[in-house]
Amino acid sequence: xxxxxxxxxxxSGGVKRYLGLTVICTALAVFFQFLTPxxxxxxxxxxxxxxxxxxxxxxxxxxxxxxGRSFLRENLLLIxxxxxxxxxxxxxxxxxxxxxxxxxxxxxxxxxxxxxxEHTQRLPYSWHxxxxxxxxxxxxxxxxxxxxxxxxxxxxxIIRTFLLITxxxxxxxxxxxxxxxxxxxxxxxxxxxxALFFSMIKKKFAVCDALEGELTVAVQENLTGVRVVRAFGxxxxxxxxxxxxNEKYTNSWVRLGSTLGxxxxxxxxxxxxxxISIIAVGAVLASRGSLxxxxxxxxxxxxxxxxxxxxxxxxxxxxxxxxxxSTARIREILDAExxxxxxxxxxxxxxGDIVFENVSFSxxxxxxxxxxxxxxxxxxxxxxxxxxxxxxxxxxxLLNRLYDLEEGSGRITIGGVDIREIERSYLRRxxxxxxxxxxxxxxxxxxxxxxxxxxxxxxxxxxxxxxxxLDESVMSFQKGYDTVVxxxxxxxxxxxxxxxxxxxxxxxxxxxxxxxxxxxxxDLETDAKIRKALREVRGSATIIIISHRINTLLDADKVLVxxxxxxxxxxxxxxxxxxGGIFSRIHEMQSEAVSDxxxxxxxxx
Amino acid sequence: xxxxxxEARQRFDPKVWKKLLPFLKPFLWRFVLVCAVTIxxxxxxxxxxxxxxxxxxxxxxxxxxxxLGPYAVLYLLMIALQAFLVVTLSRGCxxxxxxxxxxxxxxxxxxxxxxxxxxxxxxxxxxxLARVMSDTTKIATLVGWSLLDIFWCGVFVLGVLVAMLIxxxxxxxxxxxxxxxxxxxxxxxxGRILTVNRRVRSVNSRMVGAYNEGIxxxxxxxTLVIEDLNCRxxxxxxxxxxxxxxxxxxxxxxxxxxxxxxxxxxxxxxxRRGGYLVMGGALDFxxxxxxxxxxxxxxxxxxxxxxxxxxxIATQVNIERVTNLLEQKCExxxxxxxxxxxxxxxxxxxxxxxxxxxxxxxxxxxxxxxDGDEYVLEHxxxxxxxxxxxxxxxxxxxxxxxxxNLACRFFEPTEGRILIDGxxxxxxxxxxxxxxxxxxxxxxxxxxxxxxxxxRYGKLDATDEEIEAAARLVSADSVINRLEKGYDTYVxxxxxxxxxxxxxxxxxxxxxIADPPIFVLDEATSSIDxxxxxxxxxxxSHTLVGxxxxxxxxxxxxxxxxxxxxxxxDGKIIERGTHEELLGMKGxxxxxxxxxxxxxxxxxxxxx
Lengths: 605, 608
Description:
- The complex is a heterodimer of chains A (about 600) and B (about 600).
- Chain A has about 600 residues and is α/β, with parallel strands linked by helices.
- Chain A folds into three domains: about 1-175 and about 290-340, ABC transporter transmembrane region fold, CATH 1.20.1560; about 175-290; about 355-595, P-loop containing nucleotide triphosphate hydrolases (Rossmann fold, 3-Layer(aba) Sandwich).
- Chain A is about 65% helix and about 10% strand.
- In chain A, helix 3 (about 55-65) crosses helix 4 and helix 10 (about 235-285) packs antiparallel against helix 11 (about 295-335).
- Chain B has a domain at about 1-325: ABC transporter type 1, transmembrane domain (ABC transporter transmembrane region fold).
- In chain B, the strands form two sheets. A six-stranded mixed sheet of chain B has the order 6-7-8-3-9-10. Chain B has a four-stranded antiparallel sheet with strand order 2-1-4-5, with no helix packed on it.
- The longest helix of chain B is centred in the middle third of the chain and has 53 residues, at about 225-280.
- Classes of the chains: A alpha/beta (about 600), B alpha/beta (about 600).
- At the A-B interface, helix 2, helix 5, helix 6, helix 7 and helix 8 of A face helix 4, helix 5, helix 7, helix 8 and helix 9 of B.
């Protein structure tokens, strides 16, 4: 409870006063809401009836001065006006309290969202590898929505209900002790009943949600696998499975609905019992002369006013566990440690030699790189060949400081400077890494290419695209570079995506470019075209190509063959071919497969 | 965004609602019952202030407890009845809601099983899924609850008006005078609230999208050092959301107290006028208190009703979406007499099915795609004897799958006939054909479940031995055994936990276990590791023996072995023959072949 509130309130800096304003205005709104029945009581008892004025001294003096009861009796309009004024003030304060509550809540939520987003951007690479994207997104959206519901609706309701109970009890006790006790008994009973009920059926809700999820998955799989369903003529089988899930889902909701109906019915019964108790006890008290008509009416209307908020209170209380689960899930993200900014870092020339000295790296328990040492000369093309899991991608990640080497497990230098001393953003801007499965943002192709080079001209974008053998395909789209990619636009093939990623990196004009298996979905001819273009645009850049395709590596100056995190072979492609090791064996196998192809198509990943 | 605009223009259209009627029919009696219960509930709600009046007049004012016992019993009975009615009502409502939702979902699902594959080619899965799941749910909730709420509100308001008019017409008129003002205000506000809420939802979905991108693309963002840019863009969205949410709240926060205020105004008027009447002896205290209760209680249902009506109109869009799906034409349907004899896709009459040999003949077939204007096949004739291997060769987008689509009856010829074993396939059921075709796609789709479950999909009653035998036949067993849990390995949704090569091998096993006489295969070209590729090559040669087959082929080793090669270019079949014959023609195939051989000579510089 305390932790949950602390998590929420850490985003409330500067807007806490709105919460204060909310409490004050809600109190005033509640006060004026309760005043209306009091005016009616006064009218019934003291104006129309003949009871003594049971009002504060100065008001009585004031009324007496104006002409007493007879004055009021002739001017009932005054009473009506008083009711209207109460209503007006109630409305006014209710408006202000809702607005200030919303200002508070929306500010807190806006900050929470911004903080979460910024935090995910600053969290280290390894965190994003370890955590599932879908799960993180769900925490940032659904869980935040649960918290938002709490802060923006339930918090106000809790405050209001609390004030309602306090103010009404105070007023009731000031009028009649016995009748107040009747009301007092019902409040905790109804709250408890609601809270118990909702915590009891929470599991049923979860079951319904899970069944709905299963049904959705069944439909989705049927739709995505429709070709398989048709090909095997499995319509009946699919329908039977669907029916079973649909039936289960429906029945679980019908059962839950019956339980809910019981709750509503019993709730109404409780309210009714409360009213009849008030009436019965009231009648007895009135017969003994200790209750006036006006007071009776006030009690009845106060109990009506309390019935719903008290019942809702139980639900809010039981919902609170939902809120605390959600905040805990959010907290897990917030508590993860960000990459630390290093404003003091070095910014050396990046065109020098890249040297790996006794580099070891392990992920969890499994060692990925074992004591690697090699040099990539500045301005050359360096190839790395290795099977899946040989650790080749780790080299790219280390070079970009997506992972940092630990103390004592070797070092990587560029131009003689340990990369851990280089400012991280400077390093990443100068070592352009093209990932195998690049992410494109749902913007236009032009915006995607120039995303890391804001303000680039179209000619520059087209030049980069041309180097990535992409310009032609883009121009064939109706809207050219203004074509939006992703869900709301055109779906690009795996190869096209990779080429956009290459163009995007070229736009940064980095002195070191790393292709981390980033042409795997591009066909061989285009692959060759890109490499040819690269020779022209690279300038003095050092290029590192990681690939499992021999062809791609053939024109590298040097190739490193990696096996189980160790250097298996290292030399120029010609030397490796001659040596007759892994490199030449794979070369043979691949050229056999390649020459078997009659037509090459651009495959998709 | 486009849908938003359509929604904003919505007006009530009875034609749309009429389409729902067939689905409501099974619940007719339930509806009648629920409506009857609703009327009773509303009547009791109206009666409660009158009970209060009785208490005031008979116990409180005369300061007596005489008759309190029977009164309390009666009151208790009434609220017990009310509680019982509420339980019945909500049970009735939820069952209407859930059964309607179930029926709509089922109807959509059944229809989807019959829609042609061309529909799936042009419709995103997310779009269909939304119609099957969320739109049907919305409609059902509306019918089950909201329509009834309107009914309750209507009965209650009307009942209160009648009760007041009967009890005291002059006082009643005071309350009634306020009603239209509140109704008009409600109408004015409701429209604006709806618009603002819609805007909030649209910004909200933009924010969810931004989270999606920011998190999915976090790794890429790091390599490009654009974290700051992302954060700035995101903050713009949350700021926009903040402003719109507050605007929506302001409208609501203004509107709700406003209605409360008018209720109090009505109560004040009643108090003034009624007060004079009581003092003049023309009205009793109980009546006054009952009237005050009515005045305070009548406006809320009106406000509620306005909200629900807006919701009803908004739901029209959901109904249209679902009925559009249900009205989507099945372009390929079996003739009634065919269904009569062979059954439909859900209830096949397998006992009437003829066995199939696998001879396929295209007789004078012309074809154009439903959305195209050009014929891609014209007067095409081809006879494929049973057991023939046909390779289809051509570049990307040349239209290689047209023949396959026609042979599998995923599309039907525009003109001409396709005969299977000498009989027009339209004289047989679709299921008959599909049950006899094995189909392996380049990007194979697996269902979530284990490898074993997926292979069994080809033959539902297969034993474990049969499954393993099928896997062995296509050389998938070595790959499967390498996995930690072997055949019980969970493949994930769509097979996401396996590599493309593994998925392909399993989809081969799935096709082989069904032992189909006709086989359709789309050969893979995407780079898989060299060893798996060999296994797949083996699998292909094993599966084709003794079956009629269509292969969309890329590899010379596959093509050379084919009995017949069809060369496709620009959507048309330009050459046909065996490998040797085609080379002899020195045509397009010949140029493809020589290009490929050149590439082989200089693998390092291919195409450069």
